[in-house]
From TrEMBL:
Name used for this protein in its record: Peptide/nickel transport system permease protein
Membrane spanning residue stretches: 82-105, 125-146, 158-176, 222-244, 264-291
All copies of domain ABC transmembrane type-1, residue ranges: 78-283
Gene3D superfamilies per record: MetI-like
Family: Belongs to the binding-protein-dependent transport system permease family.
The keyword Transmembrane helix is assigned to this record: yes
Main location class: membrane
Domain of life: Bacteria
Pfam families: BPD_transp_1
InterPro entries named in the record: MetI-like (IPR000515), MetI-like_sf (IPR035906)
SUPFAM superfamilies with a match to the protein in the record: MetI-like (SSF161098)
Length: 300
């Protein structure tokens, strides 16, 4: 991310001077002086090492554009994105698991085919199309919900829950298709397994077969893919936040890249990486809980 930002044309010094009233973009001497002041005259490997050294001491640096501490900038936006992503994730998992297993238990029947076709259609739908359609229907035509997610400074998005409905629905529309398909594929394999057929032959009730054998063994392999979906909710909601004017970290990341604000770009990339690692770690732990034999395989 750091190298990519440095390869972009112009830098933060040029952006600052281009925004200064009457500067006309600044003279070469002014640009050179501001680069020296901001530390941009040093080679980029040195700037990166300085940033990494500060990170080891818990310092994320200072914005080159606003002069604010990067930690404050992220703190203002991270909570908003976590609320949006958290609500979407809480709703995504039961929807994907419920519909995926339901379709797997009806393999080849009408319910399975309708669910699979719908999931494929949703998976192929771009985020901006889903968001635009939802705005057109529920905000403009029916006027049930606001078209933008206005969040006043210093307030939580939960204070205006109506503004969260369409962004969350847009994320679910795009994410549900892939999640349902992968749960359906794994659950279909489990329902045809020998131990599931034997359980049914021994007269074990269908509900117990589903909860005791199908669900745990279908979810364990699918958890990694579900974890990638949850990680994407934090790092890849750029389009949704832009369409709904939602003040999250993706919106801040786009602005930081546009202004070549290297410390902010680096810190936001770090936050997204940490969230991704945390999501996969939680998925591994849940897999161990769901399938006890995974805890003992390494001991054999």
């Amino acid at each position: 991310m750091f190298a990519g930002t440095t390869l972009l044309p112009s830098d933060a010094a040029e952006v600052v001077l281009s925004r200064s009233e009457g500067a006309g973009g600044g003279t070469p001497e002014q640009i050179a002086a501001l680069r020296t002041q901001l530390g941009l005259d040093r080679p980029w490997p040195q700037r990166y090492l300085d940033w990494a050294g500060g990170l080891l001491h818990g310092q994320l640096g200072t914005s080159l554009i606003s002069g604010r501490p990067v930690a404050d900038i992220i703190g203002d936006r991270l909570g908003n994105t976590l609320i949006l992503a958290g609500i979407a994730a809480v709703l995504l998992v039961p929807i994907a698991v419920g519909l995926g297993v339901w379709a797997a238990l009806r393999q080849g029947r009408a319910g399975d085919r309708v669910t699979s076709v719908t999931a494929i259609g949703l998976q192929a739908l771009p985020e901006f199309v889903a968001a635009t359609v939802l705005i057109a229907v529920f905000a403009l035509a029916l006027r049930w919900l606001p078209p933008v997610s206005f969040v006043a400074a210093g307030t939580s998005p939960l204070a205006q829950p109506a503004g969260l409905v369409l962004p969350v629905a847009s994320l679910l529309t795009v994410m549900a298709g892939q999640s349902i398909r992968m749960v359906r594929a794994r659950a279909g394999q489990v329902t045809n397994a020998e131990y599931v057929r034997m359980a049914r032959l021994h007269g074990i009730p269908e509900r117990r077969v589903v909860w005791r054998y199908v669900l745990p063994n279908a979810l364990a392999p699918a958890l990694q893919l579900l974890a990638s979906s949850v990680a994407w909710l934090v790092g890849g909601v750029v389009v949704v936040e832009q369409v709904f004017a939602y003040p999250g970290i993706s919106d801040e990341l786009v602005a930081a890249i546009a202004t070549r604000d290297e410390p902010v770009v680096q810190a936001l990339a770090l936050v997204m990486a940490v969230v991704t690692i945390a999501a996969y770690t939680v998925a591994d732990l849940l897999a161990l809980v769901l399938v006890p034999k995974l805890r003992t395989e390494g001991l054999r």
